[in-house]
Amino acid sequence: MVATPIGNLEDLSRRAERTLRDCDRVVAEDTRRTRALLRSLGIDKPVLSLPAFAEEGRVPGLLARLEAGESLALCTDAGTPAVSDPGSRLVAAAHAAGILVSVVPGPSAVTAAIAGGGLGGGGGFVFLGFPPRTPGRLRRALEAALALGLPVVLFEAAQRLVRTLEAAEPVLGDRPLVVARELTKVHETFHRGTARELAAELRAQPPRGECTIVVGR
Which of 90, 80, 108 shows the shortest CA–CA distance to 212? Predict the structure, then answer.
């Protein structure tokens, strides 16, 4: 399992690059994204597809390759596989078959947003991944997470960000928030304020890509 950069390609570790060079095949969430990464490294390697919607059906074929002695390097579009991206079914199947699983750790939008946003501290946080899209389910998920008294981290796509902030505002109230965008890239920014303030700000200047939201205690 190879963690890949969340933006800046210089964040790829030397161990990750060596693993991608030495493996027999690369397994990718999106073959186009991973092939672009491999080309930037000068690596020519067969790439197999493992998208989230087809993971369960493709695990047996990948497991057969592993059992035949092939080494596979699993990558997702950015960050570490099997957290908010595909991979957990393949990893579980490999463990069950007695196949060695190794993790090459690396960049994380979660820890980058907590460290750069200044709302962590004290240790511990609750990670919700991509939140439910319906307002009711979103509010219930936030209420349960906030009840633990820890910062809450979630991902959201740019086109849904304002809608999510507006739906969450009745639960979040005046809690401090940070919206981190373009993490590790040239235009990395941290937007700070309440849910209502940030919804207004980002409606006027819509962000691009995926964003990471940190809700303070």
Answer: 108
As a whole number of angstroms, the distance between CA 202 and CA 55 comes to 34
Beta strands in the chain (DSSP E): 25-28, 47-49, 72-75, 126-129, 152-157, 177-181, 189-193, 210-215
Among the listed residues 9, 4, 48, the one whose alpha carbon sits nearest the alpha carbon of residue 26 = 48
Domains of the chain from N-terminus onward = 9-96 (3.40.1010.10), 109-215 (3.30.950.10)
How far are the Cα atoms of 14, 148, 151 from residue 122, in angstroms, in the given order?
31, 13, 10
Token pair 């890949």: residue: 4
Range of weakest confidence among 15-19, 74-78, 205-209? 205-209
